[in-house]
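Might you be able to consider the sequence and fold that I enclose below?
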Amino acid sequence: QVQLVESGGGLVQAGGSLRLSCAASGRTFSRHVLGWFRQAPGKEREFVAAIAWTGGSTYYADYVKGRFTISRDNAKNTLYLQMNSLKPEDTAVYYCADDTRPGVVTRSLEYDYWGQGTQVTVSS
């Protein structure tokens, strides 16, 4: 059974940084895409970034490009999201997710497994 466990969220001032981690277990992730999504109160879940587990190709939403970096450590089965220059509008619950048969990686419906989420709050 796939388990995804996020950590690293918290409260940070605007302009600050946080690094989120997602520990993945339960299967091998070769040929999968793992992604980060976020959901703010009253808003729909939105795509943040994704990475191909094999090969490392990356994908970013325009609103985080240049500020956030997605990476993975294959040996540790861990996904990361380095978030720099944080803004109040980045405040949300951040989720990692596993797409076992990658297609349109920006669509949340593509993803088969989800973590429980970690709260990121950016104060102004």
Summary: Residues 32 and 101 are 6 Å apart (CA to CA). The mean pLDDT is 96. The two ends are 40 Å apart (CA to CA). DSSP finds no helices and eleven strands in the chain.
